[in-house]
C-alpha cells in the first residue's frame, strides 16, 4: 500500500515539473500549442530525468482564427396574400398575384412602395415610367443603437434603393425587385452579405405595406357589403344547406373571417375542390367575458371537426353543405338550428 502511494506521488511530481499542459481539448491544434519553461530546480537538488523524445520547445502561439460571420442571408417574407418567391432566386424579388378586389395590380404595388418609403422617412427621388423604375431618397434601414438622452444618435449607414416592377402579359402577376444603388457610412463598410440584407429589408418593408393596404381594402369592401346573411336552403343534391349572401369568388375569405370570430379554427381551405375544413370549440361561460362584453355565443352543434362543401348558386349566392368529422351530412333540423345560431352570433359579435 505504501509502495503505491509513493509511486503516485512520484508520478504527480514528474507531471507538475514537466511544464507541459496535457489536459487541453484539441491539444494538437496549433492554436493550443503551449509549452512553458520547466521549473528551475535548485542546485542542491537533483533535477528529474526527462526523455529527450518528449522534450518540447518553449513557446506559446497566438494563432487565433479569423472570425467567421455565421449570420444567414436575409429572407423575403411573403406575409401578404398573393405574394410568393421563386425557390433558389439569387435576386431580391417578390411576386404578386392579383387578388380579389384589386383593379390595377401595378398601381397597388407602386402605392405600397410609396407608403413603405413614407414610413421609413423618405420618398421617391427619381422615377422612370418607361423602365418602370423608381429610386428612393436616402433612408436608414439600420437604426442607431440606444444611448443616453443627451447624446446625438446617428444612424450607422444610409442607403438608396431602386425598385423595378415587371408585369406579366396577362396582367395578373407582377414582380418587384429591390436593388441597393447608393450607400454611405463612416463606420460600417459595405459587404456582399450586408448588401443582400439591406435589399431584402427594403423589399420586406414594401410587402408589409402591401399587406396592410390590402387588408384595409378588404375591410372597406366588407363594410360596404354589410353583414354576411345566412339562410336555409338546399344544395343540388337536395341536402339541407346554408345559403350565404356572398358570391362564390368571395365566400372563402368572408366565411373564414366570420367563423374564426365564432370559435371556429380554419384548418384547410381547398378552393379547387371548393371545400373548407374547420374545427369548432364550443366556448365556455366566463364571468369576466360577460362583464366586458367579449363572450362568444355558443352554436347548437357539438365541438369537433366539420367539412364544408361550397357551391355557387344561380342567384349569385353560395350554398354551404355541412358534414361532421365522420363525413355524415347534418340533418335538416340541425342545419336550421345552426343557421339561426349563426345569424344571432353574427349580429351579437357585429362580424362583417
TrEMBL record:
Pfam families: Lipoprotein_18 (PF06804). InterPro entries: BamC_C (IPR042268), NlpB/DapX (IPR010653). It comes from the Bacteria. This is Outer membrane protein assembly factor BamC. It comes from Pseudoalteromonas fenneropenaei.
Amino acid at each position: 500500500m505504501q509502495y503505491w502511494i509513493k509511486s503516485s506521488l512520484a508520478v504527480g511530481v514528474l507531471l507538475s515539473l514537466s511544464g507541459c499542459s496535457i489536459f487541453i481539448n484539441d491539444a494538437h491544434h496549433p492554436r493550443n500549442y503551449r509549452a512553458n519553461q520547466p521549473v528551475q530546480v535548485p542546485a542542491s537538488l537533483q533535477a528529474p530525468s526527462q526523455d529527450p523524445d518528449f522534450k518540447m520547445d518553449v513557446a506559446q502561439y497566438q494563432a487565433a482564427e479569423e472570425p467567421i460571420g455565421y449570420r444567414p442571408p436575409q429572407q423575403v417574407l411573403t406575409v401578404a396574400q398573393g405574394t410568393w418567391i421563386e425557390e433558389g432566386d439569387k435576386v431580391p424579388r417578390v411576386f404578386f398575384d392579383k387578388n380579389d378586389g384589386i383593379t390595377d395590380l401595378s398601381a397597388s404595388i407602386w402605392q405600397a412602395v410609396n407608403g413603405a418609403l413614407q414610413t421609413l422617412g423618405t420618398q421617391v427621388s427619381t422615377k422612370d415610367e418607361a423602365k418602370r423604375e423608381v429610386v428612393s431618397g436616402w433612408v436608414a434601414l439600420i437604426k442607431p443603437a440606444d444611448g443616453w438622452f443627451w447624446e446625438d444618435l446617428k444612424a450607422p449607414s444610409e442607403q438608396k434603393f431602386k425598385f423595378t416592377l415587371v408585369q406579366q402579359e396577362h396582367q395578373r402577376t407582377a414582380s418587384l425587385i429591390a436593388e441597393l444603388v447608393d450607400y454611405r457610412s463612416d463606420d460600417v463598410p459595405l459587404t456582399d452579405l450586408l448588401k443582400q440584407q439591406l435589399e431584402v429589408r427594403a423589399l420586406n418593408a414594401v410587402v408589409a405595406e402591401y399587406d396592410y393596404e390590402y387588408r384595409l381594402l378588404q375591410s372597406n369592401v366588407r363594410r360596404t357589403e354589410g353583414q354576411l346573411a345566412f339562410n336555409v336552403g338546399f344544395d343540388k343534391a337536395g341536402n339541407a344547406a346554408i345559403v350565404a349572401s356572398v358570391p362564390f369568388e368571395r365566400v372563402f375569405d368572408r366565411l373564414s373571417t366570420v367563423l374564426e370570430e365564432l370559435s371556429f379554427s380554419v384548418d384547410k381551405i381547398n378552393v379547387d375542390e371548393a371545400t373548407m375544413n374547420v374545427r369548432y370549440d364550443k366556448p365556455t361561460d366566463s364571468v369576466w367575458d360577460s362583464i366586458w362584453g367579449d363572450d362568444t355565443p355558443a352554436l347548437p352543434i357539438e365541438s369537433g371537426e366539420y367539412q364544408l362543401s361550397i357551391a355557387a348558386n344561380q342567384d349569385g349566392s353560395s350554398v354551404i353543405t355541412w358534414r361532421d368529422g365522420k363525413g355524415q351530412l347534418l340533418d335538416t333540423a340541425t342545419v336550421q338550428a345552426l343557421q339561426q345560431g349563426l345569424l344571432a352570433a353574427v349580429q351579437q359579435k357585429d362580424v362583417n
